[in-house]
Amino acid sequence: MGGLVNLTRDFDVAKKCIDANILGTLNLLEATRGHAPKLFIYVSTEEVYGDASIPYKEETSLTHPPSPYAMTKLAGEHICSMYGKYFGFSVLILRVSTMYGPGETEKRFIPSIIMKALHGKEIPLNSGKKLRDYIFVEDVVDALLACLDWSDRKNSAIVNIGGGKSYTLKSVVEKIVKLCQSTSSIRYGAFPDRVLESDVWNMDITRAKKILHWVPKTPLEAGLLKTIEYYKDK
Q1: Which domains does the chain have, with CATH numbers?
Q2: pTM of the entire structure?
Q3: Exposure pattern of 124-161 as b/e (b: 16+ CB <10 Å)?
Q4: Which of 41, 107, 121, 158 is in Cβ range 3.0-4.6 Å of 116 for a Cys bridge?
C-alpha cells in the first residue's frame, strides 16, 4: 500500500515517484521472495488507463499513463508480474479508482473541499466537468481482505476496484457543501483543468465481482458523511 501519491503532471516529482513506487516496490519484493510467498497483492491505480475507452476493462483497455505517478505505478505492476513468474508466486494487481475517506491528507481533493466548507470559505474549482469514479476507503479494505480468500492461486490477475459509477467534480463539491450545511460559495473556472487528464474515469468491476466476490457497499453520500464527521473533529 505504501507509495508516493502525487497526481501532478509536473516532472519535478518524477524521481520521487521512481524512488517510492518503483524502488520501494522492488525492495518489498526482494524482502518477500525469500519467504516463499504464495500471493503478493499490489495496489495500483485507475490512472494507468489514462485516456483509454470507458469503462476501463482489465482485459481490453490499453494503458496510457499520463503522469509520473501513473507511469511508476504501471512499472510497479510489471515488476510484480515479473517477480511472480520468476519466483513462482501469484500476483493480484488491484487498480483502484479515486479513493477517499477518513484519514486522508487534507491536501487531497475531497478533504480540502470539506475543510473549506466546514469553515465557510470560498471554494475555488476548475470547470468541474470532469467525471471521476469514487470509492470509499472501507470498501477498498474489504477488497483487500477478499484477496486473501482468492481461490485461484495458480494464476495472477489484474482487478479493477471502483465504485461502479462516476460523478462530476461539480456534483461532488456541491454535495459536500450541502452535507456540511455550509455557506461556502463555489468559484468555477478559478484555475484550469489538469492537462493530459481524461475527462472521464470509470471502472468496469465485473472481474472483481466474479473472482473476489466483492462489490462496493458505500454510496457516495454515505461515504462523504462519514468523512465529514471525521474532519469536523480536526
Answers
A1: 11-232 (3.40.50.720)
A2: 0.93
A3: ebeebebbbbbbbbebbebbbebbeebeeeeebbbbbb
A4: 121
